[in-house]
Amino acid sequence: MIQNILWLTLETSPDDIPAMIAENDGLPRYFRIDTSLAAKPDQDLMKLALKNRDAKDLLIRLTNLGFSLYYNAADESRFIRHDRIVHHWPAVKDESFQVSDDGIVHQFERPKSGTISRLVVIFSPINSKPRLIRYFRPSFATLMKYVPRDTAILRVADVGGVKGAFYLDTSFMPDNSSRIRRLIQSKVAEHGIEAPNVVLFGASKGGTGALYHGLTDGWKFVSVDPIVTDSWYEQYENDYHFTAQGVFPKPKQEVFTELVGRIASERRGEALNSVIVTSSRSPQYPYTSEIINPLRDSLSVLDSGNPNILKHPDVAPKTIYAQVMAINTLLLGFSLPIGESAVP
Q: Which of 99, 131, 201, 288 is surrounded by the most beta carbons within 10 Å?
């Protein structure tokens, strides 16, 4: 590597980047994008990419090379190479966040009681801030106050993709889900926690992670309005999550259709002791309902009819009471009615 930093502009063709890397004798640590030619040059490349095709093509190419947007200023967006993130992220450097042997950033919160017999694993929702913290948006920061006194909390970052990897595999990190799996398993083993005392939890993108890893590895889960298809955001929100150009090896609808079908076949009629909190007022509801249909006789689905739920992001804040109830029900070894139930 000759230069630590390579500069691009919005006029740079993504097809020219491999030659620049070769001339540099390898990937730089950073790419910086001059956005001065944009209509709104002070916007970060993620925002520009929603309306500017050239910006989007550059963003996708850098993402698939393993670079993440970590800073923007007037006329400039900065990207960092994946392996450098843990050396740059202040919260990792000051040990507020930890990093697993597989490179998964996380945070482990111990109960004040000092005794750990149960575990809640929290997956983060979407964030669009052009900083690394978008991969680790705080979710339910006060949850420790509402769970049994012997419960620890493991929060898992979602580094990857443009706005996160949804805790799934990406084209750049095809083993991302396995790395996350090993982190959870290691914490469970380290503290001698029995599997029935583990609950995965997340909302939106975090709900995607809780649902996927819960089904894949047999953990209990509370998944709040999970995103299980890319179709809606690609069709109605201009590919807001940047999933349409090869960032992921498979679309979510294919991943979850295959996974749900396999689990339904393997565990036919068996209660999964898990909960999906959703709302028929959310645009994600029909997609989720269709995909999880083979597991309808194994899951508890809580459908909130709250008239204040007008869109997908409304579901999580309007159903906190149901989330807390579901998490504690599963932690304590109780169960909820199978099938779909209406809640306020």
A: 201
Q: How far apart (Å, rounded) are the C-alpha atoms in residues 106 and 198?
A: 17
Give domain 92-343's CATH superfamily: Alpha/Beta hydrolase fold, catalytic domain (3.40.50.1820)
pLDDT digits (tens, 9 = 90+) for 251-266: 999 999 999 999 999 9
pLDDT tens digit string along 194-227? 999 999 999 999 999 999 999 999 999 999 999 9
User: Does the CA dihedral 242-246-247-253 come out positive or negative?
Assistant: positive
The conformation of residue 83, written as its DSSP 8-state character, comes to G
DSSP letters along 205-246, please?
Answer: HHHHHHHHHHHHHT-EEEEES----SHHHHHHSSSTT--SSS
Rounded Cα gap, residues 91 and 156, in angstroms: 14
Q: What pTM did the predictor assign?
A: 0.97
DSSP secondary structure code for residue 181 in this structure: H
